[in-house]
Structure formats: C-alpha cells, structure tokens
Records
---
Amino acid sequence: MSNYRMVIQYDGTRYRGWQILGDSDVTIQGKLAAVISQMTGEEVSVIGSGRTDAGVHAIGQVANFHLQGNFDERALLAGLNRYLPEDIAVSSMELVDDRFHSRYQAVQKTYRYRIHTGEIPEVFERKYVYDYRMPLDAGRMREAAGLLCGTHDFKSFCGNRRMKKSTVRTIYEIRIEELPGELQLFFTGDGFLQNMVRILTGTLIEIGDGRRKPRDIEKILDAKDREAAGYTAPACGLALLHVEY
Amino acid sequence: MSNYRMVIQYDGTRYRGWQILGDSDVTIQGKLAAVISQMTGEEVSVIGSGRTDAGVHAIGQVANFHLQGNFDERALLAGLNRYLPEDIAVSSMELVDDRFHSRYQAVQKTYRYRIHTGEIPEVFERKYVYDYRMPLDAGRMREAAGLLCGTHDFKSFCGNRRMKKSTVRTIYEIRIEELPGELQLFFTGDGFLQNMVRILTGTLIEIGDGRRKPRDIEKILDAKDREAAGYTAPACGLALLHVEY
C-alpha cells in the first residue's frame, strides 16, 4: 500500500468547505477523492490537515491518501491538474511513509486574513479579500494581538457552541502587515477551533475601528463565552497558507 | 456644462466588451452610463479612450462624460463605487477642461498580456492569465518583439478584415518580463487595431515555442494579410494598463 502526500490550492468561493457532505460535488475533499478514484479505479479517502469553512481558500492545504496499487506520483499530479475544476490545483505530490497522517501529525498552521481598507473597491482580488473599505488602526490591533498570543482557552472564539473537546490552543504569532489599502493578518498556532480565525479577526476589527479597547481581550478570554467576542469576519478574506509537520 | 474624466478598472470576464451594444446591461460603457444617469437624472454618453474586446480587463481605462448640472466629483466617485457591480470600479474622478476628449486626445496606450507557463494551474489568477502551461523561450520572443517595434503597417495583425482606415501604427516598446511560471508582455504604442495585441501575442507565442522563427516577423508584416500572422491569444490574459494624454 502506498501513501501519497499532496499540497493543494483552492479558491473556496463556490464550495461548501473542505469536508465531504452528502453531495460530494460541492466540497474540495469530494472533488479530489472523485478524480483520484476515477484515475486509479480505487475507492479512496482523502485526509486533510483540517477542515476549511465554506468559502475559505487555501494556498497550502496538505492532505494524504492511500492506494493499493503503485501509481507514479508525477502521473497522479498531472492527472489531477488535468481533471480537477479550474479552482482547485495540486501543487505537489510525493510518496511518503505509511504512517504519515496529515491531520494527526500537523504541528503548526498559518492562516492569512486579508481586509481591504481602501476606499476604491478591489476589482481583481474581490473574491479573496473582505471588502471592509474603512480605515483601521493597526497599532491598536497589534496591541490586542499581543494579548491573544500564547496558550489560552479560546472558548470565546469558538464558533461551535456545543464543542465538547478542549478549547485550549496556543497561538505562536499574529502578524499584522499594512499594505496600500489593505491590512493582512497572519495567524500561526498549533491549531484553530471552528471559525476561530474569523472570530479573532472580527474582534480585532472592532478594536481597530475603536468600538472596543485592546485590553478588552483579557475580559473576552476570561468570559469563555462566544457572546463576549466580536463578530465572525466573512469567509472570503481567509486562506490557509501552510501546515507544518 | 461640466466635463468629468475618470480612470476605471474592470474585470472583463462577464462583459461583452467596453462598447454599448443593443443590450447595455452587458458592457462596461453601458453599466457606467446607467449608474451616472440614475445618480444625476441626466442622459449621459461615456466616451472611452478606446474599446476593449469581450473578456478583456482594464486597470487604467480612461473615459470622460459631460453633465449639464454641477455635480461634486467626490460624490460622483463614491456613488459610482457604491452602485456599480463589484467587477467595475472607478479609481479617480476629476473635473477637466470642456475640450478634453478621452479618445481623440489619447497619445499612448500600454497593454499587458499575462501568459501562465508553469505546470501547476493558476488557481487564484485564473481569470486574468492565459493558461498556456508550457515553457516559452523569452529570448526568441524578445528578438521578434524588436522587429515589431517602430512604425509599420500592421494589417496582418488586424482582426477586422474589412478595416478601411489606415492600419499603420507605431509600437514604442514591447517589454517581456519573466516571472516564476509566468511571462508578462507589455505593449506600448500610439494605438492598437482590433485584436492587435492578442494577435501579436499569439504570433510571439508561436515564435517562443519554436513553431516560427523570430525573423518571420518581417515576412508577416510585408504580407499585409491576417492569415500570415499567428493565432489570436485568448482575451482573458489581456489588460489595458494605462493611457497617456
């Protein structure tokens, strides 16, 4: 049995997220599994490093899958890029140790959130940015970001209110870059809860526009209540950049 | 009467080009005129620096229009960006001399053509590049580009076979930039015939992939026959970058 590891890019706009639902046609995982099965004649289950929500993009999603037969990695890569829809591409494919598991072994993930702050609408990148179109104070947001880093119970930033497992996570870094008419937020951590990056972003925006104070982060973390945090920023601004093992 | 000059960006993917057709709903000019009329209550005709084909994009299209009333430029700019569809934006608006005419007074235009030469499909920029996905020899293309520069009869590069006016144009520069997995061609000239940049690009591609020799350019120009030149590269790779006055 062979274990293949691939890096995947996708424009999540028209998908219901990573994970296969009843109708596999509208998920990234479903599209990948369908093409691999068609090419190899084998039933295949594609394991991703984690789910991405409906509408969220990826530049470096990692996934692996097992095949009984021995298929050439380059042929699989070329075939996938020929038969996948134009909004999904596989950037690399390699044979890896049988024990490699893209979800269990992921140790660090980086997400990027793009906020368009300029006055003129973003025409070409409009599907990959949050069209906020108002200025934000990056200094205030950086102060708040500093308080979010470290190991905390992020229950207040979890979109799943019935989450039964631990909501403790470690954020290693939140970097905020200012570009002309755009703010880019880079989140690196050991893992993120459902909607967590989007709720962190919504909360940082409410701090950047003056509605909340940077110091409010402490109270929000302590509350362990989704209601205490800010709004969930839209999916389109978010992309999974890379996963480390 | 006031004369307004604006710079416009658009993603041309879903439009039938710049120029108003019977159904104004599917052209850039039609969309702009409709919104300006709605805001001002005046019939307006929007004059562009030139037409762009169906599917061609613009980053710096220039247009002007006249109004009887005196409307604030900033209010017009904000209103347009509020009511235009998300694939059209106005980046600037200014009151100009009554005699300014965006077509007659344009003295130089620059177009960019993007060719994706990498093996991995381009997911995020897929609507703005030509998905060629094979290597091209930029050296050969530069040699051919040098022979195209200058004042020539470009009849062989004109998509309109029944063109009655002069097909003589001057190309000031064709610059070819090599990026990872992409070739960008920048064309600067005093004006371009219908489909001319796309036929120039198709011909340069046939030289870059070895099907033709750089020196063939001389024969193609001499032929004054559309059949002598290469194919018309797809619209999606092309964008009007800027217009000079």
---
Amino acid sequence: MEPGDGATSSLVRQMGAVRALEQSLTSTSDTGVAERLAERLAGVDPLRQLDQADRCGIRFVVPGDPEWPPGLDQLDHVLAEESFGGTPPGLWVRGPMPLTEIATSVAVVGSRAASVYGVEMTRAICDHLALAGVPVVSGGALGIDFEAHDATLVSGGATAAILACGVDRVYPAANRRLLQHLAAEFAVVSEQPPGSAPTRPRFLARNRLIAAVTTGTVVVEAALRSGALNTAGWAEQMNRHVMCVPGPVTSYTSQGVNNFLREGRGTVVTRGAEVLELLGSAGEHLVDAPRGEERARDRLTPIERRVAEWVPVSEPAEVDSISRLCGLHIRTTEGALRRLESKGFVRLTDSGWRLAPDA
Amino acid sequence: MEPGDGATSSLVRQMGAVRALEQSLTSTSDTGVAERLAERLAGVDPLRQLDQADRCGIRFVVPGDPEWPPGLDQLDHVLAEESFGGTPPGLWVRGPMPLTEIATSVAVVGSRAASVYGVEMTRAICDHLALAGVPVVSGGALGIDFEAHDATLVSGGATAAILACGVDRVYPAANRRLLQHLAAEFAVVSEQPPGSAPTRPRFLARNRLIAAVTTGTVVVEAALRSGALNTAGWAEQMNRHVMCVPGPVTSYTSQGVNNFLREGRGTVVTRGAEVLELLGSAGEHLVDAPRGEERARDRLTPIERRVAEWVPVSEPAEVDSISRLCGLHIRTTEGALRRLESKGFVRLTDSGWRLAPDA
C-alpha cells in the first residue's frame, strides 16, 4: 500500500486524500485496503516528513497546486497495469525548475544496455529538442536515460528525471553526478517519499508518471522486455504520441522497438525534427519528407529526360531505334542525344548511343 | 509504345490485342496512340519472332493460357504510375518452371548497393521461405535481388527472375551465371520481347509485374529513391502484403524502408516466419510473439516473486519493512526471503536484506 499502487490510488480517487487518510486510521473496509494502508501509515509522521523534506530543499506538490502537471489527473482514467496505476497523491520535487516547465516536454527513454547506435540516436534527438527549447524528461537510469539527460544538458536544454526511489537518494550510484546536477539546477521528481528505496514495482509505477507528464514518448532502443516499452504502453493508453526509432533486427536492444512497430503501435521517427513535427500543433514544425540526393538527371529538360530514359544501359542503340522507343521525332531525338552527350549522360560509340557508365 | 506503357495497355484493354493490332495497322486515332504503335509494329515480324524464340527455348504466355498468372489481370484496375501500367499483352518465359508455380510466391527485393546487414536478412528470410516450399520472385539485379535468388537456390527452393530486358539477354553481366542457371532450371520472365535492351522505363514497368504475380513483397533494404519502394508501391495498390525489414536510421540503404514505415505503410517483418504468417490463410503459420529470454525470476512462486520485488536494489532493508511493503505477514515474508536466498536472488547483510547483484 503506497503511492503508485492501484488500490491506494483508487481509495484516494473515491474519497479524496484527506478522507482516505481519516478512514484508514479510524475504520475498516471490505477490501482490507484501508487496513493495510493504516498499517503503513502507522509508521509515518507526515508533518515531520514534510518538515525534513523542506530542510533538504524538497517540496511536495499536490493536485491543485499551480505546479501540478495536469496530465497526471488523466491517470485515474487509464486501466491499471499489474496493479500499478492512478493519479499519485502528490509529487516530491527537488530542484529549482518549476514543474510547469515540463508541460511541453518529451520523454526520451530506452534500454540501460544501450548500443553505440542507441547512444548516437538519443544524443542527436535530444540535441535537436534542446535547441528547439523542448524539455526532455527521462528516468535517470543508465544507458539511454543517462544519454538523454546528458545530451540535453550539453546542448543547453532543460531536463528532469522522474525516479522510482526517493528524490534524496542516488540510484544508480554511477549517475550520482548527473542526478546531483539535476537536483541542483533542474528537477528530480518522485511520487515516493524521500528515503524510499528503488524496487521493481516502483520502477513500473514510475513509468506511468513519465508517460503522463510529457506530450509524447520516444523509445530509442528497447529489448523485448524493456521497461521503456512499458512507458510506451502507458503513453499509448493516454493518447500521447509514441515514437519509435527503428533499428537493426539483429540488434538485441532494437528487438523490442521493432516488435512494437510490427504490432502496428507507435510511429517511426528517425530524427529530432520528426519528433517536433509529431508533437507540434497542426502546421507547426513541418519537416520535408526525406528525399534522396538530387541527381544530375533531375535537372534535365523533359525532352532530354525522356530520350535519356530510352538509351540502353548496356549495349548501344542507333538514333532511329531510340526515336521509335521514346516516340519523338528522329531530329528531336538526335538533338537531345547531342545535348545529353555534352552533359556527360550518354556516349556515342561505333554501334550507336549508350548511357555513360556513371549516368 | 510497347508492353508496359499505359497507353498501349489501355488500347489493348479497350479492344483486345487482336483488334488493337489490326486497328494500329489500318486506321488512325485521335490520340495518335495507334499511329505510334503502328510505327513500332512496322519493324516487327511477330511470327518470325515467336519462331526464333521457340528455337531458343523461350515461350510466349498470353492471357487465357493455363500458365497465365491471374494476378496480372488486376493490373488493369490499378492506377498507372508515370505512364507505366496495365496488364501486359503476354509474358516471355525462359526455363522449365511453369508460371503456375509462382502463384504462392513472395517477392523479395531491395537495393543493388546492399549492406552486410541487408545481405544477412535477405538470406535468412529466403532460406526460411525455401524450406517452407514458398517460391521467391525477384528482379535478377545485383545486391538484394541476387542474394534472394541465390539463398533460395542454396536452400533448395524455387525462384524466378522477372527482368526489364529480354529473357535472352544477361543484365547485369555480373549475374550471368545466376541468370543462366535460372533460365536452365527455373524461369526467367519478361514482358519485353527477346532482344530488348534494359532501359529505365522498362525497369519501372517491370516492377509492377513483380508485385502483381506474387502474394506479397518483402523490401529488405532500400535507399530513399530505390526501385524496391516502387515495387512496394505497386504491391500496396494491388492489396498485396507489403513487408518491410527495418534497419538502422544511420544506414543509407535502410532510409527508404524506415521512411516507408514512417508513412504508416507496410508491416514490419524481422524474420521469415513472420512473412509466412502474414501471407498464410487465417490460422496458418502462426508465430509466437517474440519474447525476451526467460529469466530465473520467471520461475519463482507468486509469493516469492512478490517478496523479491520489494527487496531494495541498493541499500538493504529489514524483514518488517519488506513485509509492510509487500503486504504479506512477517513470517511469510521471512520464509520467502530464506528461499530466495537459497536460490541466489537476495542476500542477508548486517543491515538487512538486499537483492543479489545479478538477480
């Protein structure tokens, strides 16, 4: 019984946090939820906890506060997964960045065991988002999460980490410097009170918060059982954009992403500009469809192009044969062939015209 | 004016091949199509051509023949692209394999400039198709096409090449041995008469035939302006399955495939079994959704798993704290912790229980 589990969320949703607390401390219920909550609450001194937190520079943001991310309220309307779910009773926040700033943020998440490819893609996308002034939210983990936070910082962007443990703890220890920097300059967020240890259920519960407070989730790399796909699933349920970076079928850390796409879920993104386009309002941040490089052939006149198309690739052909094939008069055809020759597209050999080898 | 161009196809569709021929030779039309066709036909001696072809072991298959691939007739109901389109008047076939055998075939196509990744994926997919007895159709080109034919042959499967030039010609020259083998043991097919040179329009026209005679098209690798995507476009228009192998965003030869997927076109496939599943009748060739490897954790009892989930990842916790978190009686919790310890999942330290580093 704690923030993030479906039963507690449901109790709070039904009667409000204050009545849920009172009832847990004074009465019994059919489901036993109130009793189990009361057992947990017996060891808790909320005022002392708030006071201690305050002295560590940690604030507790609750629904109704101007800082409260409105996306979180939607969590009450989403089906709980494996008993996690619901709007959290509040968020513990450490760091000067107001949570209002993440209203336009994008989640960038992925495997802890990131490949070079995943690192490269994460950094390129976060660099683009940072330069466009879009904050990046991630989970503070090793691998893709770390790269997402770090690349955003390097490019001068804003980034917040939402953790599974208390915001006063450092997990994983290898990310100590990153997490301390975020706590000092940006924001580290958790629904679990200070002191809480990271446990598997808390990671799964945490994923829903990442999906809920952002406008969309980018999954860069994820193995088949990755927590990043769990975050993507929450984003999908909440009608947020789910964006997937495809990768080699042969790469362990892309198998989950490719499979997600195979199920017809998520949209392929290949660069930061495409993320902005998907998340922008209609008509904002439009990107040109990627095109192959322009070829010299594209600059020919329509007549020249038509003639060039009918010049054989391998064995040469005479003008009259080419003229018949392209359906143009023999003199028009010959004139075009001469111009194509001067541009290096075709060659006149002893047995007729053929395409130049590199045309 | 030749097989594969929309105007000729349309004339043949409107009045049948015989009347189209007669009319072209005897009368005039508003559009000039008949005249231009007559000009082309002036240099043709059909009976002599058929006779010559016959002596080279080349047969001419026309609509109504038992060998005629019925999928080709659908081409008359598909929008022509860049003036190519329509049902061909006939197919020139070289090789002993009856075209009826390609009724269940799959097209496997892609870039000429294939990467190691593309080669690997093509061979794995074609090997799977060959072992399942599904014939593979491709275009006889360098790169993915070559690998598709070759891997199918190596695995004992059947494969046919549909060419842009006459079936008596070898293009590209580097594929001479492959094309000669296909002509001797399987089938090489073209709508262009023997002797025809490969030209760009004929490649584009040819692509529609690959899409039309197969039950689906797999694009393994394709750059942004690849002919393989043109084939996929035809397959899409004809309601054939279009299957795409995603690849690294950073790979030139996967950009076209990834972009095709980004447009919401095609289905991701990552292995041959998934191709068979898509093409099979409902309930045939079903594949299990890919799953991550089973972990030792998956074999725990529900109670053990519940307790294990609440043991902190980093700093240790006492039994009573874990018991409170997981909502189980303290004795149940302790029993489970002992069993988890003997299985190597958790460790008892001086300050309580924590997860084993590799659990």
